[in-house]
User: Fold DNA-binding transcriptional ArsR family regulator from Streptomyces syringium.
Amino acid sequence: MRNHDAHLEGPDLAALAGLLADGTRASFCLALLDGRAWTATELARHAGVAASTATEHLNLLVGGGLLAQERQGRHRYVRLADPETAQLIETLASMAPRRVNPPRSLPAVNRSRALARARTCYDHLAGALGVAITEAMTDRGLLDWEQGLTLTGNGIAWLAGLGIALPPATRRPPVRACLDWTERRPHLAGAVGAALCRHAFDSGWITRIGTGRAVALTEIGRRTLQDHLGLSDETGTPVS
Amino acid sequence: MRNHDAHLEGPDLAALAGLLADGTRASFCLALLDGRAWTATELARHAGVAASTATEHLNLLVGGGLLAQERQGRHRYVRLADPETAQLIETLASMAPRRVNPPRSLPAVNRSRALARARTCYDHLAGALGVAITEAMTDRGLLDWEQGLTLTGNGIAWLAGLGIALPPATRRPPVRACLDWTERRPHLAGAVGAALCRHAFDSGWITRIGTGRAVALTEIGRRTLQDHLGLSDETGTPVS
DNA sequence: AAGACACTTCGGCCCTCACCGAAGGATCGC
DNA sequence: GCGATCCTTCGGTGAGGGCCGAAGTGTCTT
Assistant:
């Protein structure tokens, strides 16, 4: 009945890893970690390669199942295939030894500050804001870390009070810890993390800054988080 | 105070992925997933490459932090560096599209049957036995999958009854689901999974078959699992 | 219809890297 | 000490793959 003959060999694993073993392709995937769809040209410019080179890489990534694509007119939109893929890249990124690259220009410094303050991580919230929300939820007994991360009964009720329904059970874990690159502490991911992030956008708590993955807390969001989580406002002063 | 300037670039991620992007190195890592230490020659023979080639690959893997090594006389013992690394390889392996390789010879069939029945997966139990234990623990209310995988109070008591103390809290999650390659269903991993596996070896419930990662259930183990989990004996008939 | 734009295909360049065999330590057993 | 075993270093070879620019296809705008 079950397929016991499916044998995983070294080359199989190597083929998958090989997709991420190129600087340009890895750069694509890191950019796509913001959870949005990018066009081929945007990615090419982002990585600093010719359009033709980007095409070849995208063909490999899509063919390998890491990326999903949608054609719209003359545009080729591409995004991470699924949450599992996003988690794989996160995991890899969190284990990769990072070079210390002091930001060069003043705009670069501002950009990196904005990213550290609040950003999307695939489909959930990260940065100081994401971590602060996660820790406040823990302090209020909405999350429990004792034996693995879980959403408590109070947590379910709290979500309901915000108008967020529990996501249906799938293979994706409802709550999951995702190590924050800048904070070095975990923030909330998983289906519930995604639902919370979606709700934050829909309700105008947060809004995108420019075209990147950085987000800013709005005045509404600041007040809502203070009311519902007791978050002090130092976490998310709106940025220009 | 915190290092906000550490920027992860594409090449950083690519360098890590590149370590696993070679068939031979991937084969090494899959072999090391049994959680034990292998010598360089064993790995070379396993992967079918010259000893000199194996040396080069091991240098890369150790240098990249994926493997830890210990020199003992003329032997170079090598093992996975830590549970995080093991989980990374598991994740990669579970996402890699696998070729269907019908086992060729009769001994190969027996080996693959033994592996499907019971084996180690890094430091915990996998195969039909690992999945059966996990599902029995779930049925008896020792594990809860509702909002992420957790060990229940009953589960803690059950472990204590077996003489297994709760592992101290570290960065490693106490319980974690690990997708079983052969069963396509999750089995118990994490610190508790590791403690249970260690206890199973120490108490003689299971024993290694030959030199691979396959294990066999002993008569003691069969009886203990029946008494404590109600496991029927079809799961683990001892193999020659 | 014409031009601009987004993407793809192709050919060619060059560099990286996996591999081996031969030779040279290093360690163990006798 | 003397082979046998385990590992390492080094040079050479060959294949693979990342890159670009030029030319071609399809799509949108004017």
